[in-house]
């Protein structure tokens, strides 16, 4: 067992290393350090045309090669909430109206869950693992 002062010194060193790591891996603050990004075409639905990249430079090259296309890029959630080891989403419908100074929100009573068809694995970018709206 280490004496108390050695443990405190070790903790200080680890904190310093983590701080240094976040300088080199800024995505670590967002979610994970694997630099995974998802690119969605701006004019499609049902998961069509979605690309997953593990290198932001490759993502930028892809976008630059398609200058007429509009995209939405976002950092991929590397540690998602899972049910039975699969990704899911919740679909809930609302109607929001604003008349004069009155804001009203109606919520449709029913909602539903959609699941990906394969277990989550960040080493495999197959659509059936990462998309819940794949039809």
From TrEMBL:
Major localisation: cytoplasm
Q: Name one GO biological process term.
A: cilium movement
Q: Which keywords appear in this protein's UniProt record, sorted alphabetically?
A: ATP-binding, Cytoplasm, Ligase, Nucleotide-binding
An example GO CC term for this entry is: axoneme
Repeat among keywords: no
Which InterPro entries does the record associate with it?
A: TTL/TTLL_fam (IPR004344), TTLL_monoglycylase (IPR051437)
In which compartments does the protein localize?
Cytoplasm
One Pfam annotation reads TTL
Under Gene Ontology molecular function, one entry of this record is: protein-glycine ligase activity, initiating
Q: What is this protein called?
A: Tubulin glycylase 3B
